[in-house]
Specification:
Layout: E1 2-3, E2 9-11, H1 15-23, E3 24-25, E4 30-31, H2 36-53, E5 57-59, E6 64-66, H3 78-86, H4 93-100, H5 104-117, E7 121-124, E8 128-131, E9 136-138, H6 149-162, H7 169-180, H8 184-187, H9 192-202, H10 206-220, H11 238-243, H12 245-248, H13 252-263, E10 266-269, E11 277-280, H14 283-296, E12 297-298, H15 300-309, H16 321-331, H17 337-341, H18 344-355, E13 363-365, H19 366-383, H20 391-405, H21 418-437, H22 440-443, H23 450-460, H24 470-496, H25 499-513, H26 520-524, H27 529-541, E14 548-552, E15 556-558, E16 561-563, E17 568-571, H28 619-636, E18 637-642, E19 650-651, E20 657-658, E21 663-669
Helix pairs in contact: 1-2, 1-7, 2-4, 2-5, 2-7, 2-10, 4-10, 6-7, 7-10, 18-19, 19-24, 20-21, 21-24, 24-27, 24-28, 25-28
The structure holds protoporphyrin IX containing FE.
C-alpha cells in the first residue's frame, strides 16, 4: 500500500477483497443475506479466480490446471494454492469450490482484517463492519475515481451492467459471483433490460464463466451431501454431571471445560422432560460464534416468551441482523464509559452516600450488600431516579422470569403467584418514576442519561422503539445492577480471602483516595494497574454469565458436527477460561497472566462479556464501576468474610453468584467518609 501526494490510499484489491466489499451491507454491518454455504462457495470462487488472473492456475469449463505453485505471499490465496498443488489427480473447478468451501470462513476473516488494516473498513465492538470514510484510490486505475473503496468497486460494476462497454475481466468475475448468490438485485435496481445485460456479461469471460458455473453447481447440488461428512454429536450421560466436582460447586464454566475435554467441542445433554440441549465449548467454537454466528444463529426465539413478560417485543438482546445493528449504534453512547466518566463526581458522591449507611458490625449477605451498593449508583446515573426501595423486588421478578420463561427450570405459573404479581407492578412504578423526572422542564441543565437517549429514540421512531418496550428498557439498568452487584461480590470475596492481594489493592486504593477523589485519567490509568488485572482474573474464574443461548436458523457444520435448523444451542463461551491450553494452570488465581508476554486473555478465549454481535454493551461502564467500588470499599472499610471458614459455592441459575451463605461483615472503618 502507498500513500499518494494527495494523501489518498492506493492499493490493488484482490477479488476476495472486492467480493467482500460488494457484499457488505452497511445497514446490518455485515454481509447481505447470502446463505452461508453460497457465501463460502462464492468466496472460494473469488480466490480461485484471482489465482487464475495472476497465472497460478488455469481453469476452463472442464478442468483446473496448476501452472505455478510458487506462493503468492497473500495469506488468503496461498492455502488454496497449496491444497491444489497437494492433490495428485487433476480436478475441475466445481470439485475445488466444494472441497475448499469449508475453509472459506478463514479467507473471510483474513480479508476483513486486511480491509480494516488498510483503513477501508472500520471494525466495531460486537464484530460489525462499516466503511471507513478514508479517501481511497485503486492502484490499477489511477484517475478520477476517488471515493470509498466500495463506491469504487460498485461504480465499476454498475458501469459494466448499465453501459454497453466491454467490462474488465475482474468486473465480470465479480458480477458472475454475486449473480450466482442471487444478491445482485439487492445491490442494483435491475429492470428487464439490465437483467438481460447481466446474463450477457456473465458469459463474456472464460474464467468468470467457469468459476461462476462451478459455484452455481455447488449451490444448487453439491457433489457430496454435506451431512454425509459430519460426525454424530456425542450425548453426555447425566450421571457425569451428578458426579462432577465442579457441578457440585455450581461452577458451570469449569464443568463445561471438563466435558469438552472428554466429549469434544460439540456435545448434547438430554435432561428429562426437556428438549435436547446442544453445547458448544472451546476456542474453536468461540471463534466461530464470534465471527460467523450471526449467519446461522438467532437470538429472537429463546427470548420471545421472556419479552412478553415485560409486554415488549423486539428488545435489543432479542434483535438480529440490520435492526439489531441499528439499535446498538443508536444506544451505544448511553452505555459508554465516556458517559460515566462525564459524571464521575456524581458517581463518587452516590457511592459515598450509600457507604454512609454501612455501620461497623453490619453482617449481611455478600450478594445483597453488593447489589444495593451498585444500584445506588447505577439507578440515578442511568435513569435519574432512586430505586433502592424496590430494586430487590425487581431483581426477584427478573430472576423468576428467567427461570420460568428462559431456563425452563420452573413452570410458567410460578411467575403468576401473588407475590410475583405484586412485583410485576413495580416495573410500571419504575416507568412512572422515570417519566416523571424526564419532562423537558425537569431535565433542563441535567447531564444526559440513558433514559434521555431511550425516550428520544422512542420520540424519533415509535415503530422502532414503541411505548410497549419502555417497561423493559427503562427498568433494564436496575436489572443490570444485579449482574454488576453479583460480580462485585465475587471480586470482593476473592480479595478478602487472599490477604496478599488485599494488601496490594488497599495500597492502590489508599494512594488514589487519600487526598480526595481521583480524576478520570488517574482512575483509568496506571494507578489501578493491579486492581484492573485482579478484576480480570475474577471475571475469568467467576463469570456471572457463563453462556449464551441461541436457535439455529440455518443448518451448519461446526467442527465437523451438524447443528440442525431449529435446534437450541448453548454457547458456553466461558468454558475456555478453564482450559489449560489457553490459560496456564487454569484453577490457579494468577493476575500475571494478563501482562506481556503472556497476555492469555487476547482473542476469543476470554469472554466474560459474551461474543459476537450481542457482546455486552456495558463492558467499559461496568469495568469502571467495578473498579471504583472495589477501591472505595477497600479504602474506607475493613471487611471480613463470614463464616470465616466459608468455602465458595456458586448458585448457577439464572446467572452465577456466590451462594447465600457468603456474608460480609463491616469489621471497621479505616477512613472517615468526606461530607
Ligand atoms: C459484570 C457485569 C456484566 C456482565 C458480566 C455482562 C455480560 C453480558 C453478556 C455475556 C452479554 C451477552 C448476552 C448474549 O450473548 O446473549 C451482555 C449483553 C448486554 N449487556 Fe451486559 N453484562 C454486564 C453488565 C452490563 C451493564 C451494567 C449494562 C448496562 C449498563 C449492560 C448492558 C448490556 C446490553 C445492552 C446487552 C445486550 C447487547 C446486545 O444484545 O446487543 N451489561 N452482557
Amino acid at each position: 500500500m502507498t500513500r499518494s501526494s494527495e494523501g489518498l490510499m492506493t492499493k490493488q484489491l484482490t477479488l476476495p477483497d472486492e467480493l467482500v466489499l460488494t457484499l457488505l451491507n452497511e445497514e446490518s454491518g455485515y454481509f447481505r443475506q447470502v446463505p452461508g454455504w453460497s457465501l463460502n462457495c462464492a468466496v472460494v470462487g473469488s480466490a480461485l479466480a484471482e489465482l487464475s488472473l495472476i497465472g497460478r492456475i488455469d481453469t476452463d469449463m472442464q478442468s483446473l490446471i496448476l501452472l505455478d505453485q510458487k506462493p503468492t505471499g497473500d495469506p488468503c490465496l496461498d492455502p488454496v494454492l497449496k491444497a491444489i498443488a497437494a492433490e495428485p489427480a487433476q480436478r475441475n473447478a466445481q470439485y475445488w469450490v466444494e472441497r475448499l468451501a469449508p475453509r472459506a470462513e478463514s479467507i473471510i476473516d483474513m480479508t476483513l482484517d486486511r480491509l480494516v488494516d488498510l483503513n477501508i473498513l472500520q471494525h466495531h465492538d460486537g464484530d460489525f463492519w462499516s466503511l471507513a470514510q478514508t479517501a481511497w484510490r485503486s492502484g490499477f486505475n489511477v484517475g478520477s475515481e476517488v471515493g470509498t473503496a466500495v463506491e469504487f468497486v460498485k461504480t465499476r460494476i454498475s458501469k459494466a451492467i448499465f453501459s454497453n462497454e466491454i467490462p474488465d475481466p475482474r468486473d465480470i468475475i465479480i458480477i458472475c459471483l454475486i449473480h450466482t448468490c442471487d444478491v445482485l438485485r439487492y445491490i442494483f435496481e435491475l429492470d428487464e433490460e439490465s437483467e438481460a445485460r447481466v446474463e450477457q456479461v456473465t458469459k463474456m469471460d472464460l474464467i468468470g464463466r467457469s468459476i461462476g458455473d462451478a459455484v452455481h453447481e455447488n449451490i444448487a447440488r453439491p457433489l457430496f451431501r454435506r451431512t454425509a461428512l459430519t460426525k454424530a454429536i456425542p450425548v453426555v450421560p447425566l450421571r457425569k454431571l451428578v458426579r462432577n466436582k465442579h457441578a457440585r460447586k455450581g461452577n458451570l464454566p469449569a464443568l463445561f471445560a471438563e466435558l469438552g475435554e472428554e466429549f469434544g467441542p460439540v456435545f448434547e445433554l438430554r435432561p428429562p422432560f426437556q428438549d435436547r440441549m446442544i453445547f458448544l465449548v472451546g476456542p474453536e467454537t468461540n471463534h466461530w460464534v464470534h465471527r460467523h454466528g450471526r449467519t446461522y444463529l438467532r437470538a429472537r426465539d429463546y427470548l420471545e416468551d421472556f419479552e412478553k413478560v415485560y409486554g415488549g417485543s423486539g428488545l435489543l438482546p432479542a434483535l438480529d441482523g440490520a435492526d439489531h445493528f441499528r439499535y446498538r449504534k443508536s444506544i451505544q453512547p448511553g452505555y459508554s464509559r465516556t458517559r460515566l466518566v462525564g459524571q464521575l463526581d456524581e458517581f463518587y458522591s452516590y457511592a459515598r452516600n450509600h457507604f454512609a449507611t454501612w455501620e461497623v458490625g453490619d453482617k449481611r449477605s455478600a450478594v445483597d450488600i453488593c447489589r444495593k451498593l451498585v444500584n445506588s449508583e447505577l439507578s440515578p446515573l442511568s435513569v435519574s431516579v432512586d430505586s433502592q426501595d424496590i430494586v430487590d423486588d425487581l431483581h426477584k421478578f427478573k430472576e423468576r422470569a428467567l427461570k420460568t420463561h428462559i431456563a425452563g427450570i420452573l413452570p410458567k405459573f410460578m411467575l403468576k403467584t401473588p407475590s410475583m404479581r405484586r412485583r410485576a407492578k413495580l416495573v410500571d412504578e419504575v416507568v412512572d418514576r422515570v417519566l416523571s423526572v424526564h419532562t423537558p422542564a425537569q431535565r433542563e441543565g441535567c447531564p444526559r442519561d440513558l433514559a434521555d437517549d431511550l425516550l428520544n429514540m422512542h420520540a424519533a421512531d415509535r415503530q422502532f422503539l414503541p411505548e410497549s418496550n419502555l417497561r423493559f428498557v427503562l427498568s433494564a439498568p436496575l436489572i443490570a445492577s444485579m449482574y454488576v452487584g453479583d460480580e462485585l461480590s465475587f471480586i470482593a470475596y476473592a480479595m478478602l480471602s487472599q490477604p496478599e492481594f488485599h494488601e496490594k489493592i488497599r495500597a492502590e486504593a489508599d494512594a488514589l483516595f487519600l487526598n480526595g477523589d481521583p480524576d478520570a485519567d488517574t482512575i483509568t490509568g496506571p494507578a489501578i494497574e493491579f486492581t484492573r488485572r485482579f478484576i480480570m482474573e475474577c471475571m475469568r474464574l467467576y463469570p456471572i454469565v457463563p453462556m449464551s443461548v441461541r436457535n439455529v436458523m440455518n443448518a451448519v457444520v461446526v467442527e465437523g458436527y451438524e447443528l440442525p435448523e431449529g435446534a437450541r444451542v448453548f454457547i458456553a463461551q466461558t468454558s475456555t477460561h478453564y482450559m489449560s491450553d489457553l490459560f496456564q494452570d487454569p484453577l490457579t488465581f494468577d493476575v500475571d497472566r494478563y501482562t506481556a508476554p503472556r497476555k492469555e486473555h487476547l482473542g476469543t478465549g476470554y469472554a466474560p462479556y459474551g461474543l459476537g454481535t450481542h457482546t455486552c454493551l456495558g463492558v467499559r461502564w461496568t469495568e469502571l464501576q467495578l473498579t471504583i467500588n472495589l477501591l472505595m470499599m477497600t479504602h474506607y472499610f475493613d471487611l471480613e468474610i463470614a463464616p470465616k471458614n466459608y468455602e465458595l459455592k456458586i448458585s448457577p441459575f439464572p446467572s452465577q453468584r456466590p451462594n447465600k451463605k457468603l456474608k460480609f461483615v463491616v469489621a471497621g472503618q479505616r477512613h472517615e467518609l468526606p461530607v
